[in-house]
Amino acid sequence: MTFHQLRLNARDVVSLVAEADAGLVGHAFFCPVSIECDTGLIEGMGLGELAVRPAWQSRGIGGRLTLSGFDILREAACPFVVVIGHAEYYPRLGFEPGSAHGLRCQWDGVPADNFMVKMLDPDRMRAVSGVATYRDV
Ligand SMILES: CC(C)(COP(=O)(O)OP(=O)(O)OC[C@H]1O[C@@H](n2cnc3c(N)ncnc32)[C@H](O)[C@@H]1OP(=O)(O)O)[C@@H](O)C(=O)NCCC(=O)NCCS
Question: CA 119 to CA 1: how far, in whole Å?
Fold first, then answer.
């Protein structure tokens, strides 16, 4: 799966950019993810891409883009966001290992530490466990 495929296949997305005089310097992209569990299908989002231009990194842009996305998704009653990424970076934004919540990635090759989840609505997610699947990929 590539970011391009995700963007083509997912319609209900949240795409945020950071702009400066230099133009576009950062991008966060969230797309639909669902978890099939005993209580039914629960729909949330995946942070599909987070990127900040090298010269603009370590100024809080990546963090602000991600947290702004959380605010928008909370407003939309989205209960969770998953991410596959740096285990040393994402916990600072509130992500926890998916395994701590009984959640797994759909792809076997992804190391457990790199699959993480941010609970936006912990009450709704309390009884939820299973495999998180990106839509239409
Ligand atoms: C990861 C990335 C999006 C972070 O964006 P950013 O705007 O630099 O992040 P923030 O300013 O919010 O946070 C910077 C902090 O995160 C740390 N950090 C950045 N990338 C990290 C990583 N891969 N592992 C651990 N810490 C990391 C920085 O050292 C910095 O720490 P400090 O605050 O203690 O100085 C950016 O570095 C980037 O675009 N990297 C290349 C693409 C990429 O790896 N995307 C993520 C795919 S999983």
Answer: 25
